[in-house]
Amino acid sequence: MMKLLLVMFSVISPFSVQPAAAVPAAQDMQWTVVEEEVPEVNLAADRSGPVQHFRTLNGISLNDSKGHILAEKGQPLQKKVDPYLGCPEFEFNDVKVGLCEDTGEIQYVHIDGTEGRLKLNEQWIDMDIESIREVLGEPYVVAEDGEVYLRGHQAIKVYMKPGTERIDGVDLFEDHLQ
């Protein structure tokens, strides 16, 4: 065992005798400077249209309270539990609001595609994809079921029937993926 340790030590020891190849000195070597290529990145801010922030959709902000919504919109036409969030969805004449009453947080604001237009930050927009693109600019993501527009940590998704430009609905929500 001791012989094995001595052999291993002699092999890995810096004092072991091994033939060295001639290494040129640094001043004798040719140096080439290579500039690193940085890929172009298009951030969501680069894709924005005239609307720089999403404050309200049909008069509802994601920061509104239940009391404020009821004061603005009146009593809901219907209140049902959203099976995905487990929170109630309040349906008003022109908008649906997913509001978790225990936390007071608005999860989403939804406008049905059958509405003739939507109101984003006090600006009316026709409910067709070309009008929306004109106001919001190029989408951040184009998915099979629609287009997503980002501004900071808020997102608007325009849901469309697959293979068409017919709008099913528009949602405003917090983007937790950034």
UniProtKB/TrEMBL annotation:
State if Signal is listed as a keyword.
yes
Signal peptide region? 1-19
Superkingdom, according to UniProt? Answer: Bacteria
Q: Answer yes or no on keyword Signal.
A: yes
Listed A to Z, the keywords are: Signal
**Protein name in the entry:** Uncharacterized protein
